[in-house]
Amino acid sequence: MSGQIHIEVVYGTPNKQELIALPVLPGTTVEQAIIESGIMALFEDIDLKVNKVGIWNRAVKLSEEVQDLDRIEIYRPLIADPKEVRKRRAEKAKEEGRADKVTGGRVNPLRGN
User: Fold this and answer.
1) Domain ranges of the chain
2) For residue 34, how many other CB atoms are within 10 A of its CB?
3) Residue-level pLDDT, tens digit, the chain, 113 residues
4) Architecture of the structural domain at 5-74
5) Which residues partner with 59 through β-bridges?
6) d(CA 97, CA 100)
């Protein structure tokens, strides 16, 4: 059928990944494309009120219209705040003597600090 554009919808978990290619009509929104792809039936944890979405690693709104050859990506929520993870890792390095307690920089093992 002519007049259609071709897109992909992708989602993955640590154990399962899926890429679904499908034709849609011009003017189709990201949300409509996700629903039409059927990917939500394959992954129960997809909730479009919670999951952020993007096109080629660029965050977009569900209402944005897709273009030919777009790859819609559905992102999983973060399990941990990256800033908190870095902070805990730095504190652990200081406690273990792998980082300078004042500057937070790496300790030079040849100088003793």
Assistant:
1) 5-74
2) 22
3) 469 999 999 999 989 999 999 999 999 999 999 999 999 999 999 999 999 999 999 999 999 999 999 999 999 987 666 777 777 787 777 777 777 666 656 666 565 54
4) Roll (3.10)
5) 54
6) 7
Q: How far apart are CA 94 and CA 101, in angstroms?
A: 6
CA-to-CA dists, residue 89 to 80, 95, 97, 112, angstroms: 13, 10, 12, 21
Q: Residue 37 in contact with residue 6, Cβ under 8 Å?
A: no
Q: Residue 70: count other Cβ atoms within 10 Å of its Cβ.
A: 21
H-helix or E-strand containing 94? helix 82-95
Give this prediction's pTM. Answer: 0.69
* 3-state helix/strand/coil string of 42-92: HCCCCCCCCCCEEECCEEECCCCECCCCCEEEECCCCCCCHHHHHHHHHHH
CB 4 within 8 A of CB 19: no
Report residue 53 CA to chain centroid gap. 8
